[in-house]
Amino acid sequence: MREFVSALTACLFCVVPASAHDTWVETNTNFVRTGDVVHVALKLGNHGNDHRDFKLAGKTELDGTTLTLISSSGRSYDLLPELTDEGYTPKEGYWSTRFVTGETGLHMITHSSDRVVSYAPKRSVKSAKAFFVVTPSLDSPPRDNPGYDRVFGHALELIPVHNPVTPMGPGQRISFRLEFHGKPMAGGRVSFVPRGVTLTEDFDETYETLTDATGVVSFEPTDGNVYLVVAHHEDSSAAGEGYESTKYSATIALFVPQICPCCGQ
Fold first, then answer.
1. Please, are residues 60 and 73 in contact by the beta-carbon 8 Å criterion?
2. Which pLDDT score, from 0 to 100, does residue 118 have?
3. HSE-up of residue 243 (Cα within 13 Å, Cβ side)
4. Residue by residue, what is the 3-state secondary structure of the chain?
5. 5-61: pLDDT as tens digits
6. Region for 221 from its dihedrals, namely left if φ exceeds 0, alpha if ψ lies in -120 to 50, beta otherwise
7. Are 126 and 143 in contact (CB under 8 A)?
8. Of 24, 53, 197, 198, which is most buried with the most CB atoms under 10 A?
């Protein structure tokens, strides 16, 4: 009996650290016709392989969390009250909701989380983004969709330098700027993790790169897939009541179609 209790206790402690995993936001599509629905998912995971995989690992708590949709005109929609639990247990599955589109143009979903984790004296500050374009016709979507480079002032933030939706496809170079407290972060590691791919240990030269002096990194996908763009930074001097350091993360879920929707290549 004592062995069973010990094993159960160890199992419970394995579940608790889920609050230290990274969060990301996904949509079921990056292009949708005006008036159609977009499904939005708030997910938690990629804790394995030093935060460099693309797997679910529990469901994030909503305390201290924001989830907002910014339309092409700048109008904000709070998605948090509409979230549905897609899991059977508190730590299983993910959160989801739906949004019926109205305006045309590029829409952005932004997420943030700030809490002191329960298993260690550490503060966890997260940010995440996703993008999709609303267009009257899927046959001839517009190439120019401004608003992708909007800055939200997250502690650690990934900001697209190029449009992450149009044009987009294999061979299309995409760049991001990494900022820490509003300033470009040089020498930061950014991972571009394709779904279904496991990065090599330490540093994967195929899918990882360091930011330059201006905080910018670039990546050229070779196949259509969903990529998790992720960056981390830990500040041991950022201590406060109940925590001895602060760990930051920033993610963008990037949908790369096999054929570019606006240029057909």
1. no
2. 73
3. 21
4. CHHHHHHHHHHHHHHHHHHHCEEEEEECCCEEECCCEEEEEEEEECCHHHHCCCCECCCCCCCCEEEEEECCCCCEEECHHHCEECCCCCCCCCEEEEEECCCCEEEEEEEEEEEECCCCCEEEEEEEEEEEEEECCCCCCCCCCCCCCCCCCCCEEEEECCCCCCCCCCCCCEEEEEEECCEECCCCEEEEEECCCCCCCCCCCCCEEECCCCCEEEECCCCCEEEEEEEEEEECCCCECCECEEEEEEEEEEEECCCCCCCCC
5. 343 333 333 333 333 588 999 999 999 999 999 999 999 986 555 656 678 888 999
6. beta
7. no
8. 24
Residues 52 and 230 sit within 8 Å (Cβ to Cβ): yes
CATH fold for domain 23-137+148-256: Immunoglobulin-like (2.60.40)
Mind listing the pLDDT tens digit for each residue in 61-73? 999 999 999 999 9
For residue 172, give the nearest of 226, 231, 230, 224 by alpha carbon.
224
Which pair of tokens denotes residue 158? 């990934």
Largest interatomic CA distance in the chain? 66
Name residues whose C-beta falls within 8 Å of residue 249's C-beta, 6 or more positions apart in sequence.
22, 23, 51, 124, 125, 126, 127, 156, 230, 231, 232, 233
pLDDT at 16: 33
Q: State how beta strands 105-116 and 183-184 pair.
A: unpaired
- Number of residues written out for the chain: 265
Contact 46, 60 (CB under 8 A): no
